[in-house]
Design goal:
Enzyme class: transferase
Strand content: under 5%
Radius of gyration: 22 Å
Number of strands: 6
InterPro entries: Lgt (IPR001640)
Distance between the termini: 45 Å
Number of helices: 8
Structural class: mainly alpha
Shape: globular
Transmembrane segments: 31-49, 61-84, 104-129, 136-156, 200-218, 225-243, 255-277
Order of helices and strands: EEHHHHHEEHHEEH
Pathway: Protein modification; lipoprotein biosynthesis (diacylglyceryl transfer)
Number of domains: 1
Pfam families: LGT
Strand order of the largest sheet: 1-2
Length: 323
């Protein structure tokens, strides 16, 4: 929806202004910056994942075959998770719950309202199906995706900035975020010109640093068999616990904590469990990104990252590998 011009805000030196508009028109078509940020993030993740999978020996652009299933299911999962954790937004008297042409309906994803933890669940199902289809190991794909996923999340957070949403507690820090006082999310009782923690920016910086850490860990520590994805879960979720704790937008509270804080805690635990289990199961390295017997004739089965004298000693040679 449109927002009041920032000229209505009290000028605060060194603060971060919110964008004056959240969309633009091309004829009858409304283009929202929120959607553009998400699309740009998806494209960046696909390109980086394709590069990493190809380097491991997979066919070029096999990532597209996986993405056409994983991306839609990820978006659906993200929306469902958001709706279920914010039921008061969509259900009850006077709500346009099921009307796809009215604002505030469960279908109005263009207004904002997707949750990364739901995207991870839905996207994981889609990725698993895509990997079954292409013959790529699921954990190989997950490891290749991990840095690109963080990059996509960093880019997508700019969509919240354009939407003037999901900001944090009031602050007097010089990088405080300006929010117009007539914004529905502006807390009642606060003075016009109050600044807020730019949680979108905190997450952008944290995720950007995480991309560097994951790329380094994958190359230097040879984290495979899902262990790099496990590191992603721990890194992202640990940061999310902090940023989520200072956000002031409405959320379901469970045992004193926001629902997304609990989701982030679960993310840390799941990441640690994956790291421990996969380290014990697979102390060696992956020699191929493909499930045995699914290698296409045109693919370089031997990983380009490791010499051929590396072997996975976690299972006897005669045992058929499982994903």
């Amino acid at each position: 929806m449109p927002f009041a011009p920032l000229s209505t805000l009290t000028t605060v030196p060194a603060s971060i202004p919110s964008p004056p508009v959240s969309y633009f028109q091309i004829g009858p078509l409304t283009i929202r910056f929120y959607a553009l940020c998400i699309i740009a993030g998806i494209v960046a993740a696909v390109l980086l994942t394709n590069h990493r999978l190809t380097k491991r020996g997979a066919e070029k652009w096999v990532v597209i075959d996986i993405a056409i299933i994983a991306v839609p299911l990820g978006i659906i999962g993200a929306r469902i998770f958001h709706v279920l954790t914010h039921p008061d937004f969509y259900f009850g008297p006077g709500k346009n719950t099921w009307n796809p042409f009215e604002p505030g309906s469960v279908w109005a994803i263009w207004e904002g309202g997707i949750a990364i933890f739901g995207a991870l669940l839905g996207g994981a199902v889609g990725a698993w199906l895509g990997c079954k289809w292409t013959g790529i190991r699921f954990w190989t794909f997950a490891d290749a995706l991990a840095p690109g996923l963080l990059l996509a999340q960093a880019m997508g957070r700019f969509g919240n900035w354009f939407n003037h949403e999901l900001f944090g507690l009031p602050t007097d820090l010089p990088w405080g975020l300006e929010i117009e006082s007539d914004n529905p999310a502006f807390p009642p009782g606060l003075a016009e010109g109050t600044l807020f923690h730019p949680t979108f920016l905190y997450e952008v910086l944290w995720n950007g640093l995480g991309v560097i850490v994951l790329l380094w860990a994958g190359a230097k520590l040879r984290l495979q068999w899902g262990k790099l994805f496990a590191l992603y879960l721990v890194w992202y979720s640990a940061g999310r616990i902090v940023w989520e704790s200072i956000r002031i937008d409405p959320s379901e509270i469970i045992l004193g904590l926001r629902s997304n804080v609990w989701a982030a805690i679960i993310g840390v635990v799941v990441g640690i469990v994956i790291m421990i289990v996969q380290t014990r199961r697979h102390p060696g390295v992956e020699l191929s990104p493909y499930v045995p017997g699914r290698e296409p004739a045109s693919a370089d089965v031997q990983s380009q990252d490791y010499p051929s004298d590396f072997v996975d000693v976690s299972e006897p040679p005669a045992t058929v590998e499982v994903e």
